[in-house]
Fold each of these.
Amino acid sequence: MYDFNHHRPGSVAEAASALAGASDGKLLAGGMTLIATLKQRLASPSDLIDLGAIAELKGIKEDGGALVIGAMTTHATVANDATVKAKIPALAALAEGIGDAQVRNCGTIGGSIANNDPAADYPAAVVGLGATVHTDKRQIAADDFFTGMFETALDEGEIITAVSFPIPEKAGYAKFANPASRYAIVGVMAASGPAGTRVAVTGAGPSVFRIGDAEAALGSGFSADAVSGVTVGADGLNADMHASADYRAHLVSVMLRRAVESAS
Amino acid sequence: MTDTGIGASVKRKEDFRFLTGEGRYTDDINRPGQLHAYFVRSPHAHAAVKSVNKADAEAAEGVVAVFTGADMAADNVGSLPCGWVVNDRHGEPHKAPPHFPLVRDKVRYVGDHVAVVIAKTYAAARQAAELVEVDYDELPAVAETGKARDGSAALLHEEAPGNLCYDWVLGDEAEADAAFAKAHHVTRVDLVNNRLIPNAMEPRAAIGEYDMGTDSYTLYSTSQNPHLLKLILCAFVLGLNENKLRVIAPDVGGGFGSKIFCYAEETVCTWAAKKVKAPVKWTAERTESFTSDAHGRDHITHAELAMDENGKFLGMKVDTTANMGAYLSSFSTSVPTYLYATLLAGQYTTPVIFANVKAVFTNTAPVDAYRGAGRPEATYVVERLVEVAAREMGLDPAEIRRRNFIQPDQFPYQTPVALQYDIGDYGASLDKALEMIDYDGFAGRRSASEAKGMLRGIGFSAYIEACGIAPSAVVGSLGAGVGLWESAQVRFNATGSVSVFTGAHSHGQGHETTFSQLVSDTLGVPIENVEIVHGDTGSIPMGMGTYGSRSLAVGGSAISRACDKIIEKSRKIAAHLMEASVDDVEFENGTFRVAGTDKEKSIAEVAFTAYVPHNYPEGVEPGLDETAFYDPLNFTYPSGVHICEVEIDPSTGVTEIVDWVAVDDFGKIINPMVVEGQVHGGIAQGVGQALLENCVYDGDSGQLLTGSYMDYCMPRADDLPSFRVGMTETPCTHNPLGVKGCGEAGAIAAPAATINAITNALGILSMDMPASPEKVWRLANQQKMAAE
């Protein structure tokens, strides 16, 4: 990697100020994408602002019918947290299925959604559960947050602090993993609760998207049979050596059914 | 059998240091004053190098030197040779274009070596490498095996018109045609043996060092065969006397063939050490392993099998195009010829076989031996062909094999493809495998799967391999540039412990345990008193290294012979000490006894006497240190039957291997646990090829598309079932241990068993590897899709 200045602030305010003061600064969360990119010399930021020492960004709490998960909470913490397992088991299961143990011990929810990799799992949870993204400047509704492949509504210098997930009545996540990377080729979150009935798909398209037909079908009865006829078109879906757009479209239907079946 | 002797599952002696992080690998070694090398590699698959401007890099902080092919040419550094001459169908030797460690005029694959930057730190070398300005003139590239010989394909080497390395045949085509003319039925298959990237856990690494005082070099390298590397580097590349280079291959973390070869990087580090007057270290980044380790497999094959009305095989014809990559790696030419076509008889009495192999150059990394080397490709051809034949003839897949097996009373059996099998009992392996898998219960299991909406299939692979490589005279007559014997030196130390110096090299095989068991058992010394030394040309007699499942069959036989010499000499000393005739002295469990008396001397006492020869027989030299060289009389022929059972989810195309039975005949076994481990690892690699692994280059640009673990899929533990391993035993007839070798069997057997099971489940005849979920899903639903 190229040389850079390393900062390790103790608060969000210090981080924001370090970022503002850098000529080409980057926030470092778990580093699961950024470190690999740096090692391959595909990025050369002037400064890395490491969020790892900011206590206020870590942890999980239940607050007003929602689970609030700090941006720097690792996937392993979410996967193993007793409250998450009790209140939103689908979210714990999703976190448990990310990457491998090393990735889960380093990678964070804030880092994942800020990067918005089209094959990441968390965007399906954020949109599917109707979460709200908290930043140091504002709150952003899930539906407004993911704006395109590797793009989000975050402004320059804006730092995610937490994500709050309304506790659903039912939610299920099913993922068809890339056999090599274990990223989602298709991942579907289906849920119903205070945020309504929502179905969000990751992996299949350039960015997470909802399936209106499935949500309408589930709205009149949350069962696998209700979505048995739901399909999505292959147009505009991702295609690579591991899965064509056709196959991804087919897998959306299969994973949708499995998500609903597994919902609890 | 003692609990540490031959036949005991002794826990691996070497594992303590490996599991506690105390192993000493090449990258763990740091020499005083060491500098670091970073290679400037080609970003293009094919380009003329018009100029290399290294001035900015040379001026960069920490940089000591930057070298290009021109610098090596000025020092008369030679081409990396291919050590096996294959004569084509006209008797002409294969086309052998030069392969310079740093290119001189053209780059021919992505990752090809353009220059080396040597600096005080690795970071400085890497940083400065970006300042080396290379002016490329890009050329069209050809990356696909099947397109290399197209008239319009880019030409890699002027020396090889049409990108053809050789057009080679084995067998009599006219006889084969005659057999086919009499056939009741001919089965035809078209197969792709997918290209693989070896992915040893430890990346390649090298440290070259030059001692001005003695004008000699030392190379630390991740090599499977340090002596061979020394020989090649001295005699063919660097022009050194062999006494001026010591090669040390310390702990090596896996090779699978990819660390047999003489590579550009270690050559450059050795040469450059003298130029910069300091040790030069290089360790591959994983990306470099993907782009520049020699790859494996990569065949396109059309094969035909002629049968009579009973499914008896009458003849076989095989036409294969094999990809050599951009240059010939050290033993590349032998893999799709003498290690491939000679195995096409399999376990069967097929009387006539004709094979034609065309080896081609493409703009891809060199291809060479990879676990099994030619034999997995041969087994895949034979066992896919036999499986499809059974389906077309309406025969049970077990029955068609049984009808065609070479019978136990037919050994030694001369195949039509040059090999003479010494012994085997193929029916015994099949019977045991059928019983273990509960073949009769398969229909019931299939119904149970169908009731869950799943497709169940069963697949066989009855493989044979030629291992224990190899009788020197035989391989010499076939073009090998080396003899393939092995050496061993067994040294009693004065106080009774034993040091064994072996020319074999362990990079995961467990030699320190297996060889210790052999020596402990033979000499009657406690296993903890036996030390196995390997991997250093400075202390070990010339040896040939480890590949081709040869370590025990050839290296172990050499150890056995050296132990015999120790015992014979000790017997004379013991007889003298006990005042008896040599003929009356018996040796058992480490003790010499005079028959019919209570006189005895332990071998440790004899060893002490040999080094403190105060009371010593006349005419016997002091010391107890014997060397043996063992040249095998024949290859060994491990064989067996693997049966794979799969369950496929037609809604996703995901294949789960639900059961795997491996029944192997490895002859005598020294350590059953080590053998089982080898079988497990081999199957994992074979299943990796069949289901997951696939090296893909972009057909137009020649860019490696599967250049990381994000896209190149290695098998993981949860991709595999718990294997069930059984053994049968027909001891090898021609080596002193009766052993055959076990390291490659799983990788040889597994691909055909897996694909046979998947095609059985899907009710189709053929599909190509890897059986990715999308491919399987399409095949599982093709009728439904066609109807839509």
Amino acid sequence: MTTETGQPGGDPTEAIPTEASPAAPMPAAPAASNWAAPVSRLAVGVVPTDALNLNVAGRRLAGPVQGFGQLWQKTYRVRLTGADVTPAAVIRTWKEHFGDFWPKGNHFYGPLTSLQPGEVALLNLALPGKMTLSTGVLVIFADDESFAFMTPEGHQFASFITFSSYADDGVAVVQIQALLRASDPLYELSMPIVAQRTEDRFWNDTLWALAASFGAADVTVEMERVCVDHRRQWRYAGNIRQNAAIRTALYKLTHPRAWFHHSGDA
Amino acid sequence: MPASRFETEVRLEAGIAVVLMRGDIDREAESGLAAAYLAAGDASVILLDFTAVGYINSTGIALIVRFLADGRRDRREIRACALSPHYTEIFELTRLSDYMHIFDDAASATAVATSEMTGGRS
């Protein structure tokens, strides 16, 4: 296990504007359930004009058991010292303004109100070299203290990611925990070079921005990274056929107008 | 509704380790599940029995995935039984059901294990 602490790269208080769209028309979750209903393929609803909508509609979900690379458990945690806020209030705000806390240049097109189980959100993520990764997530779970996403086929990571908050010694602690494998061999190759660091920086900056929005003092984001399974799942090497980064790049090459969509516009 | 404390009971039956889980599977269940994995000894098959499980949240499902990954790493098969219809839906949603043998109850799971031990002779 490695434990690291970090500081944000840019000005985390410079949150991106909210760019939400109505939720995709997914099947409703069962009554009184905090879980989404099972879905065989993802559907996308209304898409904002500035969003690049690729690699989500018609895709199946892919969790860590369907990924190719080594299995990692990554935990990012921050204490909201000095902030007079409850864990439930943190989660409520986070669900309502999820994309606002993302690093500049990355766009989350979620529901206008609050994240709910069964909703699909589009993601336009900035990659090195002004490239864009167009993908999405399904909100698989949400309650008062946490919510969770699962990624579709083609996403960089086949993963579950849980966002939660709890009280510790009277202080609200905010945590992001991801269980992930790189989806295919190409993504796996990039893990030690750039993907791990980019992912860590992304969530570090997000937590820093969230903590700052609540007026927390002495913000330090703690990170733990554990390799749960060193073996690669070669039976999923064929996932590369749905690699969202490759497909997004090819799409933009063949559709010049797509360059006017968000493309790492930092 | 207050959270129900998570506990496990591990027994060997028909050559498999049966982990009877009680309570809610959430963040508090992490150490209990890890202890159950160790208590399963060197059984090549571990059966997770959901008969007495209350609430499962997303962290709980992540713990099950983690349990599955530990099993894969150690070349042990993880099976499940006694999922309620709601938990069956969660396993379908998260695609855990693509990866695990799921049985109606512990008796049918151990019957299959017995059959496997005897090479299918009944």
